[in-house]
């Protein structure tokens, strides 16, 4: 179980955070979810800086990154990740409320791995999150991912 | 002095080295008063040999009385202007002494006074006063010229006096004449410019009086003091200056051995001459010359006044036209329209028969002009040859421009051009054209024979027989006020163009700003407005799940209770409470579903609004679109809406168009989705899609046999949030058709509809075949 990588969820809105966690919970992925509430916190955890200096050097299976974040927005976080040789291989999925074409184009320019517009419909949202989680978390596991039996483990970054 | 000259206009007319014989001349060093030069004829008048005088001081020659000597040597304010010093008496008679400064020398002239012409200026006073009154009374130029000729001839006693006016090319034209029978009339004749070369004209301007008493005179050489290196003596201001031998020959050929002229200088420019001739040698005494000069200058002022007042009148007349044109130009989007739509003012502004405006490579013409190709050719030539000129004019394009003779319009040749440059960089011009004015001009002799090459020198023409020429390829000349008016219009246009450019820049800035604001607004709508709806739906779903789980649990409990109760009592009770709970639970679930559905609808509205605003501001990415494939794809995407329906599609050949594929797909998606929606309830829904091509545009039509609509409301159909049906009957956001119209319009096309209630509807939209301008701000 310990070989399973984490999923890093970066989301500032508590309601979206809760709903996303519920969606992940229901997907029954065995991965531990680490949550970050702004861009800086996300990068600190990912790059093992500051409070996370002594974190074991394991990259997450996937980063689910909201576009609009305090302090440092999602596009900047994405740009930082994709320009850092140490972590640029980590897949990043952009989660956004926006249908703005410019965000999409920008994200792809910066090397995003997937782009998901959060649907209003919860079922669709759930399907999207589950699909993403399954795809990226399992695809990036050294051995095929396993499904969880107990409650999902969530830690705050 | 040699007569072996190359050409008259290269002659050293200011430094001839000779004088006329009716007097003698000497020059002194202005510092030492030593005689530097003396005319060879001094002994003929004074008994003193020239060689004996050279080198002596003027004082020691004894030629002049002490008081006159003092006057001559005195310092003066205007050393260049000749002064008369009174009479000197020698054995041969009385001489008028005149002196002026020439370089480092002072020239002293002694002009013989013929006792037969004795007189003085004060005696002429009554005649002059009468003459001035006459000149001032003349109201027309022609009358003024006639009076001047008569007055001058009377004063000089010559046989003929001509008022000779120069045109722009410096040809002379006789505009006034007074004569007796001894000399022929030259009135209205023209004389070619070469008759009076440029340097001669300049001399006429500087020294207004010139007398040649006898064209057969033998020029008297001026002797110089030996051993002194002297520059040639400039005799520009000398009374006795010897004139060009070519000119003397010209006079002899004309049969006038004696001539006297007074220059008419207007505004510092040589306007013309009053030229008097006599059939015999004859002198004009100094006091008469002075009187003539005085009266001629009065006439010059009179001419200047007349020119000024007629110009002023003309300008005032044109100002009214100009003011109207300005108003037209200011009213129009493009100033050109203000001009070309009003030929009734645009052409008379400069008395033209045609005009053209060349702006940013586009040519607009009005009236009689060369064809567009011709106008473009003229503009090219102007920009190349006269690019530095703001205003250019010619009355003969044939002369001015290579190939300029070929411009014709309806048989009449375009001869005159007046052009003002609006922009040098963009080669923008306003051009006016005048037609050829064929007229007959009488020359005083054939101008082509004005100078005939002889052996080693030029001879003036022998014949002064009047010679008629038909002038072609020439328009009426452009006048100074017309040129000024054109220049004023140019300034006005430039002002308008610049103001418009500034306004446009302001508007563009404003548009950019509001577009940025709109974008920011849309962005925030898309992010912030969608989120709460998403949360409502999300939490409501969670609540629903909880309730359902609870319901299942409670019904499980109820079952358990029932099982327990199965042995004994409380069945009815248990059942009653369970059905209550189930009713409340199902109500709650319905409420929650309504909340979810409402939030859904709100979310869709936000999405719809957003896509509508996007259709308006996202820039068009036109490409070749395979419409057949696109419609096929839309049908595929709409499959879910066809579930449980019987729909017959008839899709014609739709071909290709140049359009933004994302936007075009939205249009078809919307129209097909509508067609499916509004045929709900038909046993068999029929949906036709066709394309009709014309050279200008492709028109697509989507037709259905659905509920249709009342044509009375067709105007509301394409508005945002306009619905013609109740929400329960047909759901929708009311944005789809607004989007269809907007997208069609962004492509330069339009959208419209036809419908009959309960029979069906036809929706059309057009996509122009050629790219047309996007809407402003896109």
Provide a compact summary of the structure.
The complex is a heterodimer of chains A (157) and B (778). With 157 residues, chain A is an alpha/beta fold.
Please provide a written account of the structure.
The complex is a heterodimer of chains A (157) and B (778). Chain A has one domain: Response regulator (Rossmann fold, 3-Layer(aba) Sandwich). Chain A is 38% helix and 16% strand. Chain A contains 5 helices and 6 strands. A 6-stranded parallel sheet of chain A has the order 5-4-3-1-2-6, with helices on both faces. In chain A, strand 1, helix 1 and strand 2 form a beta-alpha-beta unit. With 778 residues, chain B is α+β, with helices and mostly antiparallel strands. Chain B has 4 domains: 302 residues, Beta-Lactamase, CATH 3.30.450.40; 147 residues, PHY domain (Beta-Lactamase), CATH 3.30.450; 108 residues; 150 residues, Heat Shock Protein 90 (2-Layer Sandwich), CATH 3.30.565.10. Chains A and B meet through helix 1 and helix 5 of A and helix 14 and helix 15 of B.
Keywords:
heterodimer; A: alpha/beta; Rossmann fold; six-stranded parallel beta sheet; 6 strands; globular; B: 778 residues; alpha+beta; Beta-Lactamase; seven-stranded antiparallel beta sheet; 30 strands; 24% strand; disordered N terminus
């Amino acid at each position: 179980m310990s070989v399973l990588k984490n999923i890093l969820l970066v989301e500032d809105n508590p309601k979206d955070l809760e709903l996303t966690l519920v969606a992940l919970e229901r997907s029954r992925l065995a991965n531990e979810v680490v949550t970050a509430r702004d861009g800086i916190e996300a990068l600190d955890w990912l790059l093992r800086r500051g409070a996370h200096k002594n974190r074991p050097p394991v990259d997450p299976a996937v980063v689910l990154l909201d576009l609009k974040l305090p302090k440092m927005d999602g596009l900047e976080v994405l740009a930082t990740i994709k320009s850092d040789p140490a972590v640029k291989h980590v897949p990043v999925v952009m989660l956004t409320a926006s249908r703005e074409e410019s965000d999409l184009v920008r994200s792809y320019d910066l090397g995003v791995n997937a782009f998901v517009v959060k649907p209003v419909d919860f079922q669709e949202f759930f399907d999207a999150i589950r699909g993403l989680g399954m795809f990226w978390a399992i695809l990036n596991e050294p051995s095929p991912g396993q499904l969880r039996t107990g409650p999902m483990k969530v830690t705050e970054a | 002095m040699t007569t072996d000259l190359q050409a008259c206009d290269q002659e050293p007319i200011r430094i001839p080295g000779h004088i006329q014989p009716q007097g003698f001349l000497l020059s002194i060093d202005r510092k030492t008063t030593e005689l530097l030069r003396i005319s060879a004829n001094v002994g003929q008048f004074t008994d003193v040999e020239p060689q004996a005088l050279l080198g002596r001081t003027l004082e020691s020659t004894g030629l002049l009385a002490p008081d006159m000597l003092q006057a001559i040597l005195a310092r003066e304010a205007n050393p260049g202007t000749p002064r008369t010093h009174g009479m000197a008496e020698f054995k041969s008679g009385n001489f008028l002494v005149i002196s002026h400064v020439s370089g480092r020398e002072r020239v002293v002239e002694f002009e013989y006074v013929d006792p037969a012409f004795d007189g003085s200026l004060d005696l002429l006073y009554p005649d002059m006063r009468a003459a001035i009154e006459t000149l001032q009374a003349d109201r027309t130029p022609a009358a003024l010229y006639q009076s001047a000729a008569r007055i001058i001839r009377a004063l000089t006693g010559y046989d003929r006096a001509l008022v000779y006016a120069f045109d722009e090319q410096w040809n002379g034209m006789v505009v006034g004449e007074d004569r007796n029978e001894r000399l022929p009339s030259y009135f209205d004749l023209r004389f070619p410019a070469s008759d009076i070369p440029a340097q001669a004209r300049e001399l006429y301007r500087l020294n207004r009086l010139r007398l040649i008493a006898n064209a057969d005179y033998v020029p008297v050489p001026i002797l110089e003091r030996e051993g002194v290196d002297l520059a040639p003596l400039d005799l520009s201001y000398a009374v006795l200056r010897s004139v060009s031998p070519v000119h003397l020959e010209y006079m002899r050929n004309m049969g006038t051995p004696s001539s006297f002229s007074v220059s008419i200088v207007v505004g510092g420019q040589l306007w013309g001459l009053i030229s008097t001739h006599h059939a015999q040698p004859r002198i004009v005494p100094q006091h008469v010359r002075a009187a003539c000069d005085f009266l001629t200058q009065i006439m010059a002022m009179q001419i200047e006044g007349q020119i000024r007042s007629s110009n002023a009148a003309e300008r005032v007349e044109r100002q009214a036209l100009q003011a109207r044109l300005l108003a037209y130009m200011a009213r129009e989007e493009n100033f050109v329209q203000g001009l070309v739509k009003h030929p009734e003012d645009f052409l008379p502004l400069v008395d033209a028969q045609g005009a053209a405006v060349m702006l940013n490579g586009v040519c607009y013409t009005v009236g009689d002009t060369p064809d567009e190709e011709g106008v473009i050719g003229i503009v090219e030539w102007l920009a190349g040859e006269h690019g530095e000129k703001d205003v250019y004019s010619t009355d003969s394009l044939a002369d001015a421009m290579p190939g300029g003779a070929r411009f014709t319009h309806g048989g009449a040749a375009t001869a005159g051009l007046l052009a003002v440059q609006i922009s040098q960089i963009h080669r923008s011009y306003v051009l006016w054209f005048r037609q050829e004015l064929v007229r007959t001009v009488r020359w005083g002799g054939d101008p082509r024979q004005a100078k005939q090459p002889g052996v080693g020198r030029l001879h003036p023409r022998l014949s002064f027989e009047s010679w008629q020429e038909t002038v072609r390829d020439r328009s009426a000349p452009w006048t100074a006020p017309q040129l000024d008016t054109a220049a004023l219009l140019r300034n006005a246009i430039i002002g308008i163009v610049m103001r418009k450019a500034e306004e446009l820049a302001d508007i563009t800035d404003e548009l950019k700003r509001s577009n940025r604001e709109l974008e920011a607004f849309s962005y925030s709508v898309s992010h912030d407005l969608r989120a709460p709806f998403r949360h409502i739906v999300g939490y409501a779903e969670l609540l629903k799940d909880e309730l359902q789980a609870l319901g299942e649990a409670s019904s499980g409990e109820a079952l358990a209770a029932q099982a327990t109760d199965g042995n004994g009592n409380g069945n009815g009770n248990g059942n009653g409470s369970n059905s209550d709970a189930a009713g409340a639970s199902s109500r709650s679930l319905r409420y929650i579903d309504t909340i979810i559905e409402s939030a859904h609808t709100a979310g869709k509205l936000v999405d719809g609004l957003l896509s509508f605003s996007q259709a308006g501001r996202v820039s068009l990415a036109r490409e070749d679109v395979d419409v057949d494939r696109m419609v096929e794809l839309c049908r595929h995407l709409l499959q879910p809406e066809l579930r449980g329906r019987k729909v017959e599609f008839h899709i014609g050949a739709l071909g290709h168009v140049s359009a933004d594929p994302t936007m075009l797909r939205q249009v078809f998606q919307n129209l097909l989705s509508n067609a499916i929606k509004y045929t709900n309830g038909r046993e068999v829904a029929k949906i036709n899609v066709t394309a009709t091509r014309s050279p200008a545009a492709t028109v697509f039509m989507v037709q259905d046999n659905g509920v249709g609509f009342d044509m009375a409301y067709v105007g509301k159909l394409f508005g945002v949030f306009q619905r013609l049906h109740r929400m329960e009957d047909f759901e929708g956001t009311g944005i789809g058709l607004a989007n269809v119209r907007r997208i069609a319009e962004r492509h330069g096309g339009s959208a419209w509809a036809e419908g009959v209630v309960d029979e069906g509807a036809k929706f059309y939209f057009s996509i122009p075949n050629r790219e047309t301008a996007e809407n402003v701000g896109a």
